[in-house]
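Hello K.,

You asked for the raw outputs rather than the summary table, so here they are, unedited. I folded two proteins back to back in the same session to keep the settings identical. This is the first:
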Amino acid sequence: MIDRFAELLVYNLMGLDQATRLGSSVHFFFYDTIKIIFLLSVMIFAISIIRSYFPPEKTKKLLSNRKKFMGNILASLLGVVTPFCSCSSVPIFIGFVESGIPLGITFSFLITSPIVNQVALVMLFSLFGWQIASIYLISGILVGIIGGLVIGKLGMEDEVEEYVYNIQAGETEIEELSWNKRLSYAKAQVKEIVSGVWKYVVIGIGIGAFIHGYAPADLLSQYAGPNNPLAVIAAVGLGIPLYANVVGTIPIAQALIGKGVAIGTALSFMMATTALSVPAMIILRKVIKPKLLTVFVTVVGVSIIGVGYMFNFLVNII
């Protein structure tokens, strides 16, 4: 139905020829914009209902007094259902450290949460199928577990800014929400998140539409296809300076993959923009010292590169 509406809009009302690059690009833009905004609204509502059962205080209590490894696994899993953006990383980090949660377990949560976005996961499923979505989910969790274990093993608690340990936040009572309150929360989340990310979606789709219609497939396939061993590293390097919501990068990844770019390369680019963007690192620097920040970027960057190569390998045998 959405595809038919986009065809009527672009080819009938606007009079563009579907055989031309312009017509193909404009159709891609309108079709993906309508589809993704619709999917966002529906999935944010459903996910917000689930998220209402995992407020930050409950997450902290679940992670408190957990031993290493099992704590890292639990933290990474909780990062999937309680996502946050870079702007909320500082208060969450402070809350976890203040609660006595080990540094490595805290970082397992901080790494997985921005990488594995449930909305992005659902969109990946709708665009690429359950195999790719499942590998994305598992690899994001593994990056969080491995990254947290490595950081925890290095014993870098002294690389956290001193003021973080001096904060006494105290206990906050966990409110039990009624079903009506959960529905109201979900509606408010749809309004807040869609109003906040729609511009990233439109920009991402616009870039994707241009790539879809005009980017030379042969050139992209040659330099960013599965046969180029350096493509994944280059994609991560390009993704770090950017700041983009993961939802906005999915249309770009879709267009790139359609032009022959390897899936692992495109998804590594996505993960780097959300987990290692420069604005996120500037914010995180407020609570950790340069040495720990460098270790964090290195561990996560190497892990994402490894995930990219793993994707490219697995896609060839699926």
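The second followed immediately with the same parameters:
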Amino acid sequence: MSLSHKLRWSHGEATILSTAAMLADATFLVDGKPFKPFARAPWLGTVDDASIVGHLRVLAGDFVGLPFGTGGRTAGPNLPEWGSLLGQPATGTIHGPVAHREWSIVGGDDESVTLSLDYDPDSVVRKVERVITARKNAPALDFVMRIFARHKAPISAGLHPNFRMPENPGRLELKLDFDFGLTHPGQTAEGDPQEFESLSSVPRNGARVDMSHIPLSPRTDKNVQLCGARGPLTGTYLDEGMGFELDWDRDLLPTLMIWHTDGGIKGEPWNGQFRAVGLEPLASAFDLHTDVATGPNPINKRGIKTWVDLDPAKPLEIRHSVRAFAV
């Protein structure tokens, strides 16, 4: 059974669940007005099927992945450099134990909460802590994932903030500077280039789509990875006059994956109901097997690191934040 902790501060309130240490809900007060930028699955609180992975049962605003992804996909026929990498069989649950299991809430008050999760004895990871703190006198949340290792090793890692889609196409504007972008190798159509330079011109099915203004029309699912991210990402809800800034440690997580999902996932618990954009800072090769991320792949061959290094001598801290603003 999932437990919860509530944050209440001068500029908002938020609820964090023990399942997947999920940020289930958050309302920011911006110039005295409520603003809710995060996504929230319509089934949250109604699914108790243990066969459904933990973060999907409570899918909402923000969780973490360690290792990130799981593998078990197939590559498009025109991307031979990805073929053998995507074909590796899935192991474990997607995004690792942190995204599936029940965490312990070890302490908290109105402005901060600390959760902890022990990994299995055979894992390189010994323990993970997650601290979520309301920023004093600001409509913002600060997050820390602290990883304790048993021995030195590389591992894929990622953050998984999810933001709500507006109803009207193109009315959430995304801005981020980056070195180069790649479409997901499992979604790259034959004949399409995988690489692109601008989020406003992303290859898709022989044409180009503008992923700097979402949701796309017609509704579709599309994943891309922006490599060599520079500076924070901003998202602006053009019809609301409100926006958010997503900032993170780009030295550790140098890429950002955009998971644009607009009702296209079927089966339980999705049933075509979920609309959101995951804006996911990563040290990973898309959502593939951690062995793909830590071995040679087409991203790290270009100098973009796709893993983090664990060391038992010092816990690894990965930080990110979400700040709301008025336009």
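The chain has three helices and 24 strands.

Happy to rerun anything if the numbers look odd on your end.

Regards,
P.
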